């Protein structure tokens, strides 16, 4: 079957856009295998009505601490948070 040029779908190419700013104000790292941690995160999620907290489960199979410049031992030692500018808080 022949498709004429006028009937081909048009593809719009978008220029490279700068990365968008995160919508969260703090990213909290927690151990999803820890029942107490999960309970606390569940409570925080309920309180975070404006969804300004990004919750990151460090026990998830696809979590890579090296991508954040941390080790698993470091993250497990105490609760960590990260601000949108990359500043770490404990």
Q: What's the number of helices?
A: 2
Secondary-structure element order, N to C: EHEHEE
Shape category: globular
Helix content, binned percent: 10-25%
How are the SSEs ordered, and which strands pair?
Elements: E1 26-30, H1 35-47, E2 53-57, H2 72-77, E3 80-82, E4 88-89
Summarize this, please?
The protein is an alpha+beta fold and 90 residues long.
Provide key terms for this protein.
alpha+beta, globular, 90 residues, single chain
Explain how this protein is built.
The chain is α+β, with helices and mostly antiparallel strands. 21% of the residues lie in helices and 17% in strands. The protein has two helices and four strands, in the order βαβαββ. The chain has helices at 35-47, 72-77, and strands at 26-30, 53-57, 80-82, 88-89. The protein has a four-stranded mixed β-sheet with strand order 2-1-3-4, covered by helices on one side. A hairpin with a 5-residue loop joins β3 and β4. It starts with 25 loop residues before the first strand and ends with a strand. The mean pLDDT is 85.
């Amino acid at each position: 079957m022949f498709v004429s040029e006028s009937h081909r779908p048009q593809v719009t190419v978008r220029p490279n856009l700068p990365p968008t700013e995160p919508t969260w104000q703090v990213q909290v790292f927690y151990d999803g295998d820890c029942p107490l941690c999960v309970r606390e995160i569940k409570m925080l999620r309920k309180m975070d009505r404006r969804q300004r907290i990004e919750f990151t489960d460090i026990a998830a199979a696809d979590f890579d601490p090296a991508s954040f410049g941390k080790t698993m031992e470091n993250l497990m030692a105490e609760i960590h948070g990260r601000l949108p500018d990359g500043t770490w808080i404990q």
